[in-house]
Amino acid sequence: MMSSRLVKSQLSRSFEICHLQNRARLFWSASPLYKADKATELESPEAVAKQSHMRSEPLDFSNNASVKAPKTKIVAESKYESRNYELPKWKEALGELFIKTFRLDMDKVRAGPVAGFYYYTLCKEQALQYEGEKLSDTAKFFYEDLKLPRTFSQWFQITLLHEWILFVRMRAMPFKYGRNYQQKLVDRTFADIEMRLFEEMNVNSGRIADQYLKDFNTQMRGAVFAYDEGFYTDDATLAAAVWRNLFSGRKNIDMVHLEAVVRYIRSQLYVLSRLSDRDFAMGNFKFVPPNESVTVLTPEQEAELKRKVAEKYEAMDKDSNTLPSNRSKLSYTN
Question: GO CC annotations (predicted)?
């Protein structure tokens, strides 16, 4: 089987190359679509997509197999990673004592439940679809408005796009933490895909599953480099990367759909660029729904937002009752 260690060895070099100067790039290029007059109400990505008048149809994949709903939809391998799980009081007290005694770096430990579970679940659910089940509003944007095929491989491409958006913000964190968050997200992705291949796609051969995992790994590396190129250059290059990966290079592509996706991406990046390292590392982020538009903050609004965030975390740091597991060394002013 293709282990997470193999994925780690193949992707770690990519993480190192792309980390340098990423913070400056994130804040510099997060909002080229939003340099218009601030008084003008910007349309949401979904509204842009609905302006299409082309009768383009999804590509007809030969492996257009339906995705069967599993008996359980739990992503986490451990109940302790779920935000809804509450430890018994004695276990919680023992854990807090252990963290305090051995001075564990919670910013590193937190990467597992935050990036490996919470952020992966966010990415996975954006386009999650099962045969006979109603689509979520976000999934409708991708499968109905953008006319993408409802296949397992297409779900992976949509999930990968959202993971790359998070990669951009993770690279802007201090290197040792950002790389750890990225790796936890990648590890959980392939662990979950392997489980879904057996339980949902009825793959019964370990050799076949291993080949699928290798193919998905290749797709991930190629897509990340393509999206990075668009992120570091301009929207035209980013749109080309979206066309090659998300739309599989279809010939009858609607440029309105590409514009909608690029606007969707830039909206997420703008929100992430206004989020401090600590807020992001704590899991205080959700993707902006495609039917909502992002409004650029005025300098006054941005200053007020930073002031409130600083007050919140300054109070937490000074409070002697703050649990060791809730403490962080990451910046809340950036």
Answer: mitochondrion
